[in-house]
Each structure stands twice: as structure tokens, then as C-alpha cells.
């Protein structure tokens, strides 16, 4: 199998699976219990969270562990709304957001919040539209850092600086799921209050995510129970999963520059080879782009046909994001990049990481040419 869908989920390294299995066998005590092995696990949770902070440059944030970024985003947005009922019922966002953010905001709209969507051009937040939206007070601004279907890096620094300059009190949430391990990332210094992250995007097992919370930011828990994690996210803490995730993150971050450079080489070789093979295609990209995501419009065939045909040949790619493809929402996203609804249906997303090879790129090119020639009407 040639796996080219690392944006949907990163496959887990065998060494990380071994770490998880060992910890499940040896350290699966309930950290709330009072006997020695459980107390040891409690200490180890603290130590793992410290290493997480170090890896993310997030010394000033409290890391909360959740079940994934969807939960983190829900906790951030619904938790802020519940914690600051006296503030303006207005939240600013962009049209590049993941469905987790959009759905949480829809829920808040149902509770009377005015949700203002700032348009983006070439994956960049329109700063004059943001400036205008900031004329009226808002509780929060929620932004995606790296867009998951096209791979554009938004102009985060400018948007944050503008929001802070216009409204001292505004709370800023960042969906950094696709940024961490793909671009250099340090939470401290970004100027945001809350950051959502997902473990399975950086090689941890599924079922774990993080919400980094800056000091003095209030949240109301959305999952209540035994009061774990300062009462902000109840539920028995899972040390084996946390430790495994921190090790997966540390591993993914090692030699990040070299890895990104190699991925860029693979991407460029792939695009050149597709041109050389005479394939008619168009690369969708923003003003600032990560190399790991390559969204290709192939006019000859629909993305869905290509995806299934490549799958038959042992290659995994996707159309739109794994989470939104069943809702068809990638149509509207691709329209932001100037594509009509029909053209949007011809897009496939190839996501590459450093585990891929040049020969896999060559096989992909041969396969794409074969598929297009076979199915073309
Ligand atoms: N945000 C972005 C940008 C994503 O790509 C994803 C996953 O596709 C999520 C949020 C949701 O993450 P999780 O799968 O951990 O719930």
C-alpha cells in the first residue's frame, strides 16, 4: 500500500505501538487511586504534560487532555460562551474552518450568538474585513492555522495583532491541528488564548487531543463528572495514551526541517513528473503553502473516480477532508479558491510525509496517467 493521506491521520510508528503496549501492561493504574503504583502514574502524568509543553513551546499554557481536537474545539468555543455570559454575544471566524469549529459555532448561533465569517483570499484572512468586524465588540475570534484541505498557512500573526490592537478583551482560539509537526510551531508568543490539537495527526493513537489554555482564561467544562483536570475535563486520565502521544509528538518533531525539506522535494518531483507525463491538472494552493498537502484539480475525471481507481491500484488519497467529504462541504471550500461547484468535484488531495519515497511518487504518476487514460470519456 502507498499511503498518501497523512493529513487524515498519520500512521503509527511500530516503536510507538510498542511503547503503548508496554505502558498498557505496566502502568494502567487509575491515577486517582491512592496506592503507590497509582501515585507514581499521577506523577508521570505531570511529567508527560511538562514534556508536551516543552515540545510545543507552550510553557505559559495549561495543557488539558481531551479525546481529540473536535472535543477541544467544542470545549474552547462552548466553554468560553458559558464562562463569559456578560460579554458580547458575537464571535468572529473565517470561511476556512474545519467542520468541528463550524458546527460548534452553529450551536452558539442557535443560542443567539452572532457569528461573523471573515472572508479569505488565497488562504489569507482579509484584514480589512476583519478590521471592520472588530469595530463592534466580540467575545472571541477563532482561526485555523493551516487549512486541512489545501494546506495554506493563514496570516495568523497579522490577524492576531489586529484583533489585539482593536479589542483588548477579545479571546482568541486557534485550531493548530494541521500546523503542529508540519511547520515550526511555538505556542508561547503566538498571542492566542486557546489552542486545539489532535494526537492522531502527529502519530499518536486516535482518541486523544489537547486544549492549551492560557492563564486567566475562564472556561466552563462541557464534560462533567469526577472533576479531573481542574474540573475542566472530567474522566479518568489515561496515562499510557498520554505518554505514548507525547513520545509520538517528540518523534515527529525531531529533525523537522530536514523532514519538511524532503517532503518538498517529493512534492516538486511529483508535480514535475505529472507535467512531463502530459497530464492536464491544476495545483490549488494559497499564498503561503505547506508542502505536505497537494490539492490537484484533474479536469478529465471526478475526484471520487480517481480516488477509487487509485485505491484499486493500492494508493490511498482523498477528496476533501476525511471528516467533511460525506457532507460535500469541500465544494464550498474549493470555491474559495476560485473553483465552480463542478470543478471542485475534480479535486483530489494527496498528502505526503517523510515516510514516502521517490519511487512511490513515480508509481503515483504512472497510476494517475493510467487511470485518466482508462476512464476518460
Ligand atoms: N481541525 C482540523 C484542521 C482537522 O484537520 C481535524 C481533523 O481532520 C480536526 C480539527 C478534528 O480533529 P480530531 O480528528 O482529533 O477530532
Overall outline = globular
Number of strands: 14
Discrete helix count: 12
| Each distinct ligand | pyridoxal-5'-phosphate
Helix share bin: 40-55%
Give the end-to-end Cα distance, rounded to a whole number of Å.
28 Å
| Estimated share of beta-strand residues | 5-15%
- What's the rounded overall pLDDT mean? 95
Taking the sheet with the most strands, its summary is: 7 strands, mixed
Description:
The two termini are about 30 Å apart. This protein has about 375 residues and is an alpha/beta fold. The chain has helices at about 15-25, 35-55, 70-85, 100-110, 125-135, 155-165, 240-255, 255-275, 305-310, 330-335, 340-345, 360-375; strands at about 1-5, 60-65, 90-95, 115-120, 120, 125, 140-145, 170-175, 195-200, 210-215, 280-285, 295, 315, 345-350. The relative contact order is 0.16. Helix 2 packs parallel to helix 7, helix 8 packs parallel to helix 12 and helix 9 crosses helix 12. It binds pyridoxal-5'-phosphate.
